[in-house]
Design a protein that fits this description.
The chain has nine helices and nine strands. The protein is of the alpha/beta class and 226 residues long. It has a single domain, classed as Spore Coat Polysaccharide Biosynthesis Protein SpsA, Chain A (Alpha-Beta Complex). Strands 1, 2, 3, 4, 5, 6, 7, 8 and 9 form a nine-stranded mixed β-sheet that branches. 37% of the residues are buried.
């Protein structure tokens, strides 16, 4: 089965090379890597250019991560889809471990795994303590931890572009309502970088509003008559 990996990047010059490198360096390499440059104004495009034909790069005006991911999905060729955030790292055996589960369990739609949170080495010493996670390693149903069958992804519908900060949470809830069958590997598959520019840290008000909106939409769906 062909694997497509999607990475949305906006002003990710500092970390995008490591993120892409972690995807290309898998023990079971993906068949294609699509990076959407979502209106970056820094050196992201120059960094991506260093990878040549190893990746496909698309550029769009800044429209948000949900739009970027949907754009990439429209051209992705794989029967299996994975995601990596532009500031995170896949561990080397992520795809190998998750592919084994999907190959063995035809009844499973998606495979998740554990995530290890770490404070980025470039964070100043004075700021490191407040970024230190309460839990370093945890199981998480995060987008970047997931490998999913394309058919299951499409069954739940596209990511909600009106929720740029919480679109995956909303999508996952909808997917579960529609019968998503998932499994977990007991291994760290993603290293999540904590730094001063994390979206969840800089856009907390937007995340709170969008979470409430997503819950409201979910409630309306549940109340919809048969």
């Amino acid at each position: 089965m062909r694997v497509s990996v999607i990475i949305a990047a906006c002003n990710a010059e500092a970390y995008i090379a490591e993120a892409v490198g972690s995807v290309l360096g898998q023990t079971a390499p993906p068949d294609e890597v699509i990076v959407i440059d979502d209106g970056s104004t820094d050196g992201t495009a120059k960094v991506l250019g260093q990878f040549g034909d190893c990746i496909t790069v698309l550029a769009q005006p800044n429209s948000g991560q949900a739009v970027a991911v949907n754009t990439a999905l429209a051209i992705a060729q794989g029967e299996l889809i994975g995601f990596c955030d532009a500031d995170d790292l896949w561990t080397p055996r992520k795809l190998e471990l998750q592919l084994a589960v999907l190959d063995r369990r035809r009844d499973i739609d998606a495979v998740f795994g554990k995530v290890e949170q770490f404070v980025s080495p470039d964070v100043p010493d004075a700021q490191r303590e407040r970024l230190k996670p309460a839990v370093a390693i945890m199981s998480g149903e995060l987008k970047q931890c997931m490998l999913i069958r394309r058919a299951a992804l499409e069954r739940a519908g596209p990511f909600d572009e009106s929720l740029p900060a919480t679109f995956f949470i909303a999508w996952l809830g909808r997917a579960k309502q529609r019968g998503l069958r998932s499994a977990h590997v007991d291994d760290i598959v993603v290293r999540r970088r904590l730094h001063l520019g994390n979206g969840g840290r800089t856009h907390t008000d937007a995340q709170n509003r969008e979470t409430l909106l997503a819950l409201h939409k979910a409630i309306k769906v549940r109340r919809r008559p048969e």
